[in-house]
Task: structure prediction
Amino acid sequence: KGEVLAHRTEVDDDYNGWQGDQGSQNGNQNGQNGQNGNAGQQNYIGTAAAKEIALTAAGLTAEGTYDWEFEVERGGGTQYYEVEFKAASGYEYEVCVNAFTGEVIWSNVPAAGLISPEVARETALTHAATAYADFAGKTPNSVDVELSYYQGTQVYEVEFECRELRMEYKYYIDAANGTVLYNYSEYDD
Result:
């Protein structure tokens, strides 16, 4: 139909003049003001504060976390940091933090009553060792775990590869009870 269903804008943090990392946005940067440019006279909390808020929301400390990414985006009339990082378990966290107030707007942190990402990871690896005879005793590479949905059910999507076998594996683990809902493997080309 050609209808606009949703839209979003984001600050180009690769732009040389962007200062969001320093905890402030000046109202006039290269002639741009207000909504179309930067955030007027409001101060961003900065990526260091956004990182601490994301860690607190996830119940983690910085130790054992890696692959941190920060983007300032706009959605629903609010500018926010989209903070993404991985934990030692391979779980990929995403936490959206209001760029001015520090309020957590959204996160994929597992809610009470869900199994942990670590349990989902171990369930997938244990299942692979029994379901795929050639995988038994092998060491997986780059195990990634992400909270997602599969056929209307909240799941952990667990992906890993075994370079020795040149195979990739994907699992959907029910986030509520740890049941393997779906899995497959394919050659890593």
